[in-house]
Design a protein that fits this description.
The complex is a heterodimer.
Chain A (H helix, E strand, L loop, with lengths): L8 H6 L6 H7 L2 H15 L9 H14 L3 H9 L5 H14 L27 H7 L1 H15 L6 H9 L4 H39 L1
Helix pairs in contact in A: 3-10, 4-5, 4-6, 4-8, 4-10, 7-8, 8-10
Chain B lengths: L21 E5 L11 H7 L8 H6 L3 H16 L7 H15 L2 H15 L2 H10 L7 H14 L7 H9 L4 H24 E5 L4
The chains are: A mainly alpha, B mainly alpha.
C-alpha cells in the first residue's frame, strides 16, 4: 500500500510550505519546478517501466540518497521498499560500505593528470550480491561510480552493465535516475539550507 | 539480439579544459533518427536535437528527457528576473570543472564568456580550477557551486551569507542552487554515456 504522494517532492523534502517566501520564489521558475516534479514522476511512476522495474528504481534511489548522507531522502526512498525488507537491510549495509567523499577520479592523461585523485572503487560485497542479484549489484556499482567519480566513467562501465543483463534502454534510464537524484538531493539540501536561514531571519525580526 | 558498447578510436580526446567547441561520441547506440516517432520528438523538445547523438541516446527514455530538458531551459533561459544569465552559466561551468566534465565545461564556459564578456576570468577558472580568484562576486558563486557539488553536500549557511554579502537576493540565490544542482545531473550523463572529442586538429 502506498502512502499519499506529496504534490511536489522537492518542496516536501526541503520543508517548503505553501505561501512561504521560498514557495513564492520557486513559483517564478514554474516550468523548472513542474518539470523537476515530472522528472521524478516519469522516473518512479512512468506509464511504461520498460527494462527497469519499480523496485529496482527505488533500490538505486535509496542507495544514491544514502551515499549523499541525506537522511530525509534516504528514508523516503527506503520506505518505498517496505515490502522487500531483505533489500532494505542489504542497502543499509552497502550504503555504509560505500560512503566516502567526492568527486574524485582521473582525467584523460595529460596536463590535468596532476589533479587525479584516488579513492574508493566500490564493489558490492559478495554475500550481498547474492541477495541483490547480478543486475542490481551492477547498478549499485555504477551508481557509486556516477555519484563519486563520474570522470572515471569509461566504456568498460557500460560493458559491465550489459554483461549483468542491462539493455541499452535500461542503461539510459539508470543513468538518468542516478543523475536526476544527484540534482534532486542538491536542490533539496540547498533550498532547505536557504529556508532555515530565512526562518532564523524572520524569527530574529519578530523578537 | 544483444546490445553492445561502441568503442571509439578517439585520437583527438581533449586533455585540458577549453572554451573551444567540442564533439561528443556516444558509448551506446543512439536511437535511429529515421525511426523517431511523435513520442520521441516530444522528448527531444527541439526538433533540431534529432541531429545530436547525445539527445538521440537519451531519447530512449523520452518522457524523462522531455522533463529534464524543460527543467534545464527554465533554470538557464528564464531571465525575466533573478540572477544574470552569465552567473548561471558560471555556476554550470564551475560545477563541470569541479566534477571533471570537459565537454559540459566547454559549452558553459563559452556561454559564461558570451554573457559576461570576461573571457580571461572564465579561462582562469578552466586553467586554474575552482580555486581561481575571479573577484568577490564570482568567487562566491563558484564556492557555493563547489560546495553543492561535493558529496556529501558541503553547502551551508556560510555560503548563503557569502552570496548575500556580494549582493545576491534570495531569488538569485535560488538561481545559483538550481543552476549548480542541475549540472550535477548534466555532468553525470555527459561523462558516463560517451566522451568528448576535438572537432579540428590544431
Amino acid at each position: 500500500m502506498m502512502s499519499a504522494e506529496p504534490k511536489d517532492i522537492i518542496d516536501h523534502l526541503a520543508g517548503i510550505e505553501p505561501g512561504s517566501s521560498l514557495d513564492t520564489i520557486r513559483a517564478r521558475r514554474l516550468q523548472a519546478r513542474e518539470n523537476a516534479q515530472k522528472s521524478y514522476l516519469t522516473l518512479f511512476a512512468p506509464a511504461d517501466f520498460g527494462d527497469v522495474a519499480a523496485y529496482e528504481r527505488y533500490v538505486v534511489a535509496a542507495f544514491v540518497a544514502g551515499l549523499h548522507d541525506e537522511p530525509a531522502l534516504a528514508i523516503f526512498y527506503l520506505a518505498k521498499l517496505a515490502d522487500r525488507p531483505e533489500l532494505v537491510g542489504v542497502l543499509k549495509t552497502e550504503i555504509e560500505r560505500g560512503r566516502t567523499n567526492g568527486p574524485y577520479g582521473a582525467f584523460p592523461e595529460g596536463p590535468l593528470s596532476v589533479e587525479d585523485t584516488a579513492g574508493l572503487i566500490y564493489r558490492v560485497a559478495a554475500d550481498r550480491k547474492m541477495v541483490l542479484g547480478a543486475k542490481l549489484a551492477a547498478a549499485l556499482e555504477h551508481a557509486h561510480l556516477l555519484v563519486f567519480r563520474p570522470r572515471d566513467a569509461a566504456p568498460a562501465a557500460m560493458q559491465a552493465l550489459l554483461d549483468a543483463g542491462w539493455s541499452t534502454n535500461g542503461i539510459v534510464t539508470l543513468s538518468q535516475l542516478v543523475a536526476f537524484l544527484s540534482f534532486q538531493v542538491r536542490s533539496v539540501a540547498g533550498l532547505r539550507t536557504l529556508g532555515a536561514s530565512l526562518g532564523r531571519r524572520t524569527a530574529a525580526k519578530a523578537s | 539480439m544483444r546490445d553492445s558498447v561502441i568503442v571509439h578510436d578517439n585520437e583527438n580526446e581533449p586533455v585540458v579544459f577549453t572554451q573551444d567547441e567540442l564533439g561528443w561520441l556516444p558509448w551506446l547506440e543512439p536511437f535511429a533518427e529515421a525511426e523517431l516517432t511523435e513520442r520521441h520528438f516530444a522528448g527531444l523538445v527541439d526538433k533540431a536535437r534529432a541531429k545530436s547523438d547525445y539527445f538521440r541516446l537519451l531519447v530512449r527514455d523520452p518522457e524523462v528527457l522531455e522533463a529534464r530538458t524543460k527543467t534545464d531551459k527554465d533554470i538557464f533561459y528564464n531571465t525575466a528576473d533573478g540572477l544574470p544569465r552569465a552567473e548561471r552559466e558560471l555556476a554550470a561551468a564551475a560545477t563541470s570543472r569541479y566534477n571533471g566534465c570537459i565537454y559540459c565545461a566547454s559549452v558553459h564556459s563559452r556561454f559564461a564568456t558570451t554573457y559576461s564578456k570576461r573571457r580571461d576570468d572564465v579561462q582562469r577558472l578552466l586553467d586554474e580550477g575552482v580555486g581561481a580568484d575571479l573577484g568577490a562576486r564570482w568567487n562566491a558563486v563558484v564556492k557555493a557551486s563547489v560546495a553543492l557539488a561535493s558529496t556529501p553536500i558541503a553547502f551551508g549557511e556560510q555560503h548563503i551569507e557569502e552570496l548575500r554579502a556580494v549582493g545576491l537576493d534570495d531569488a538569485e540565490i535560488v538561481d545559483v542552487i538550481n543552476s549548480a544542482s542541475f549540472f550535477n545531473w548534466a555532468n553525470r550523463l555527459m561523462l558516463s554515456l560517451g566522451e568528448p572529442t576535438t572537432l579540428a586538429a590544431k
